[in-house]
Amino acid sequence: MDFGNIIKIVVLVLYFALLVGIGLYCRKNSTDVNGFVLGGRAVGPWLTAFAYGTSYFSAVVFVGYAGQFGWKYGISATWAGIGNAIIGSLLAWLILGKRTRIMSQHLDSATMPQFFGKRFGSPSLKIGASAIIFVFLIPYTASLYNGLSRLFGMAFEIDYSVCIIIMAVLTAIYVIAGGYMATAINDFIQGIIMLVGIVLVIFAVLKSQGGLVEAVNQMSQVVDPNVSSEPGVFASLFGPDPLNLMFVVILTSLGTWGLPQMVQKFYAIKDASSIKKGTIISTIFALVVAGGCYFLGGFGRLFAEQIGVSESGVPVNGFDSVIPTMLEGLSPVMITLVVILVLSASMSTLSSLVIASSSTLTIDLLKGNVVKNMSEKKQVLTIRIFIVVFIAISAILALVQYSSSVTFIAQMMGISWGALAGAFLAPFLYSLYAKWVTKAACWVNFIFSVLFMMANVLLKEYLPDLLKSPINCGAIAMLAGFIIVPLVSAITPKCDKVLVDQAFSCYKK
Fold first, then answer.
1. Which CATH entry fits the domain spanning 3-508: 1.20.1300.10, 3.30.9.10, 3.30.70.20, 1.20.1730.10?
2. What is the pTM of this model?
3. Quick one: how far is CA 293 from the chain centroid?
């Protein structure tokens, strides 16, 4: 084993030891449901903002989305990162943050399904929301492993299954031990690594192409006859396909407003003043990390010779190979940094997803339905068991996905994001601000979004070109909710006035 590989392994072992150590340290904060799932609702602005950002951006973004959209849209893919910062972070915190924190605490809800159940006085709505989360968070979780495995394979030449096992076991240890607080502290450390890493990686990659000005100049000369016969389109402001780029921005930015694992961060933040600070921190984080990822991916076509391009103009080994190929020429130290960067992003997202899935299944499906009397101790134990189960299922799915040659990370994530955000975004947002939202409107929107996204999977060949992309379908599902909820609410029975007034009384305090 050469000296470079020894350094890589030593750094990774130290990093892993730190994560596990923090998980064990936080055990004392995870003895009850409130502590395990929400950190006792006492998490400060820095930890919450970094937890939000690191849950937002994973290997799916760095390897899958940055590679795919950078290749398709060139430098204009950076708009996705800017949208993530402005819409997905800034506006999400401003519009959802304070009201979510206040009403969720007032209703004593720890999960999104529990919020719906108490806000509308409907156990069935809670169960329906739980089922959607359970079904669609699993493929999202499975998608996290794929990009990470490519980078591990590039850096260490180790088997794909080993990458999955390492990531799954380590995440399970610190999440099971320390719950949300351990995840939040580790997210903070992982977020710092991501901030520093993405800046250094962009600098190194652009330097290898002669610097920023020279790299942009080279991009302006790239021509792909499958896209456009005119040079310069991949270096233009809005790229070769502004319409589909807009759908990418909508899905990846607005989608966070309806994702349970993202909204749950607002449940846990300490107080209203923390939300103000968290808004600024989260926005800057997203601008650097997401903006940097998509900006880097926008130069992917400069590495076309190394990547290998088919006659149809796409990478021979899939879009997920774009970013790893761009990084192959970096020094061993930089490659180690990249591996830790993407490992940090993926593990933080994975921990957030499994806490959301396991807490939802325990609190919203089992408690009171299957198990009538479930003590705090039993709930925490059950959540921990389901964390192991969900991580194991997602790891198995990742292996199956790999062996069946389904290589696009973005496809799996797009379907999950579309179904989840499409189902929950509009009902949740309207429910925070408007008393007129009805239970029936929530149900109609849930069913529409799930069926719409499943049609994209099962009936793709019969759909028009615009709807064949899960990205486009997800964006349309989210936007449709803003029309469906008020329309259905206008023609269906209103919720009990006493129940609604009681829910909104929290804003008067």
1. 1.20.1730.10
2. 0.89
3. 14
